[in-house]
Structure formats: structure tokens, C-alpha cells
Amino acid sequence: MIGPPMVEPSCNSRNIPRPIQREVRQRCGFGCVICGLPLYEYEHMEGWALVQRHVAEEITLLCDQHHREKTAGLLPKETVKEANANPFNLQKSVSKPYTLHFSGKQAEIIIGSNSFTCEDQGYGTIMVPISIDGLPLVGFVLGDGHLLLNLAVFDEYNVLVLQIKDNHLYYSTVPWDIQLVGTTLRIREAHRKILLEVEFKPPNKVTISRGRFLRNGVEVLVRPDSILISNNGMYIRGNHAHNCYGGLILGHHERPMPGFLAVDNISRYLGDRKTMLEFTREYQLKSAESQFDE
Fold first, then answer.
1. What pTM does this model have?
2. d(Cα 164, Cα 22) in Å, to the nearest integer?
């Protein structure tokens, strides 16, 4: 981290300023420093009643269990400080898996106003709204009452930064910022630059409203009302596919995959930059207006 830690002067409010929250998240690996769980609370290690101030280095992340244990005196302050100095997630550069609770015989994924739905038609029913070069980036598997979400998000260097495998969520500690607040997960590449915004709606629905799906030079941009394949300038909005195995099938697939839109010979890194930049500019303006942006 460049520069001194952020400090908020003595105050009466327990509301931690957002820049300080972000610095704490980054330092702690976006999870409880003891167990890595992505559901956490901000904890003043010396106790808020004593310090009455917000200093990034004095704040850590604890899950509900470990926060309660510390408050009750069952978890020593020294143990918390040791974990804060060597956070669980940073030890392996990946988070502890978190299980999402999806179930049922029907599923729906909404991506930029495009809806993909399916019903269990027997063991192994699969729905893949986006697949690039033979790799499904988002999809559901249904069977025997089980509903399993799968999602893969890569950065511009083809590095996997988020994976949901059969409802088990993992993320890298490499991104600039990661937040799971309520049912919404956001990954930011930089200030006001969202790599992914997804809302989990158990038991059977997922909404992806903003983001970038990147793989091998192919870029799919998502905003609330549309999808843009930046490589060829193709807009996709307001579509509905039901019981369709595939959605956007981009690039070469050794095993042909049926879908409502397949583009085999797609250019790499040579898209219509003007169209993409206009799309991105509008997307960033909307993001800046969002109450969630920092």
C-alpha cells in the first residue's frame, strides 16, 4: 500500500469512511482475517469505546462468529492482532470457499436485460448463457432438486479472479476491491471501474447488471439494459431464451454448443474501439451516479 494509512480524526460516529473501509478490505484480503469468510464486520481491534477514531491500521475484518467471540472475551485481542498481521486469505492469495444456497427445478439468469431460463428436464440439465472458446463463463446445472451455479471471471491478463464452482464461491485477492454486501457481489478493477456486479437471489435467480467478461482477447461488456460484444460491436438486449442449452457462444468450441447466438470466427483485440468506448463511457457515467460507487 502506497502512502500512510488513512486516519479519520476523533469523532462520535461509528460509521467508517468508505476510503478507510476499502483500505482495510484490501489489507485483510477481503475476508475475515481468521477464517477468510467473505461475510464480515469492521472491528476496531482496541475497541471503539476506547479509541473513538477511525484509523485504517487499527481496524480489521472479522466474521460474525469471531466478532462475537472477541466481544464476549472468548477470542483474545492478541490473537486477532496476529491474524490481522497475516490474514487467512492472503496466505494462499485466494479466499475461503463460501457456499451459495441455490436449489429447485427452475433457474433464471438475467444478464444486461437478457433473460435465460430453464427447467430441470432430467439429471444433468445445463444452461450456459455465455461461453468463450469452449469455456462456460456463467451457467446453471440442474438435477435431482440440486441447482448449481457456475461462474468464471477473468481479468485483462487472462487471470482467474473469481470462480463459483457448483455453488462454492472463491475469489483471488489480486483485484483492487471485492465486496459482498447483502446479496450483491462487486469486483472493482479500479476506482469506479467495475469488473463484475452480480446479485444472488436464492433459491434460483441470478442478475448480472454490470461487468466485463474477458477471455483470450474476447470482451463482453454488460450494463443494466444491454450486452455489447466489443470485438464486433454487436448489441444484445431484451432477449429471452427458455430451455436453450447455450446463449452467447463465442469463439471456437471443439464440441459444438447449440445457442441462440454463435460467433465462431471472432476477431481478437481488434474490435470497434469507438463503439466500445462510447458504451464504456456511458456505463462509467451510470456507475458514477450509483449510490454504491465510492
1. 0.83
2. 23
**Burial class for 205, CB neighbours closer than 10 Å (0-12, 13-18, 19+):** middle
d(CA 129, CA 174): 26
The per-residue DSSP string of 175-211 comes to SSEEEEETTEEEEEEETTEEEEEEEEETTTEEEEEEE
- The three-class DSSP label of residue 207 is strand
| 140-151 per-position pLDDT tens digit | 999 887 899 999
Handedness of CA 87, 88, 92, 96 (dihedral sign): negative
Beta strands in 36-134 (DSSP E): 41-44, 54-55, 59-62, 98-99, 106-111, 114-119, 125-132
* Run of H or E including 67: helix 64-72
Grid cell digits, residue 127: 444452461
Phi/psi at 5 (nearest 5 deg)?
-65, 150
Q: Which of 244, 260, 221, 257 is nearest to 117 (CA)?
A: 244
Element (H, E) at 83: helix 77-85
Contacts of 23 by beta carbon, 8 Å cutoff, 6+ apart:
1, 5, 6, 56
Q: Which residue has the cell 447466438?
A: 261
pLDDT digits (tens, 9 = 90+) for 66-79: 999 999 999 999 99
Q: With contact defined as beta carbons under 8 Å apart, do 80 and 90 qualify?
A: no
CA proximity to 189, closest of 211, 169, 208 = 211
pLDDT per residue as tens digits for the range 175-215: 899 999 999 999 998 887 899 999 999 999 999 999 999 99
Q: Which residues, given as ranges, of the chain have pLDDT below 70?
A: 1-13, 123, 269-294
